[in-house]
Design brief:
five-stranded antiparallel β-sheet; 6 helices; elongated; alpha+beta
């Protein structure tokens, strides 16, 4: 079937690394609805949504609860379930981003240039926190995910998993080693 227009014009050229403002607004409203549904608060969606927007993505559920208690405009029931919920609320953002990446992959169809099992030498650090992913280290491609266009790499060639990195990051920062 022929397309009426080129839909790749509406999808950004680079891999999405964050969700859109509109997606974020909708996400916080949906999270606020969950808070009300689970009876963690009986205040309005807008108030709860604004409170949730003020939380740090890097805090755990307990830290988020402390911030809501001290800085939130709504009233909340702080129990173990709510703290667990707060701990996992960032999963919503990750899920939306994952779907954005899938759409980007479907639109642009990036192809891997490196095969599973290939030995690589890292030219530029891939992750400053992991010593196995720093400059001059040897790593192996232990997997290829076409749906989200990423490689799984590890210093252990027999590893079934490893660190997940975008095709373009690995291809730009590594070279094949013999």
């Amino acid at each position: 079937m022929d397309k009426l227009f080129d839909d790749t014009l509406f999808i950004q050229k680079e891999r999405p690394t964050k969700i859109t403002k509109q997606q974020e607004e909708k996400m916080f409203i949906n999270l606020a609805k969950e808070v009300i549904k689970n009876k963690y608060s009986f205040d309005g969606e807008e108030t709860i949504s604004e409170d949730l927007k003020g939380l740090s993505l890097h805090d755990n559920g307990f830290e988020k609860a402390k911030n809501l208690e001290s800085d939130g405009n709504a009233s909340y029931t702080f129990d173990g379930e709510f703290i667990d919920w707060l701990d996992g609320m960032d999963y919503s953002r990750e899920s939306i981003l994952k779907e954005n990446v899938k759409l980007w992959v479907k639109s642009h169809n990036p192809q891997p240039k490196i095969e599973k099992g290939t030995k690589l030498i890292i030219n530029e650090s891939l992750n400053f926190f992991l010593k196995d992913l720093r400059k001059d280290c040897i790593v192996y491609v232990t997997g290829v995910n076409m749906e989200q266009a990423y490689y799984t790499i590890s210093a252990d060639k027999d590893n079934k998993g490893g660190c997940i990195l975008a095709f373009e990051k690995v291809e730009f920062n590594c070279e094949v080693s013999e």
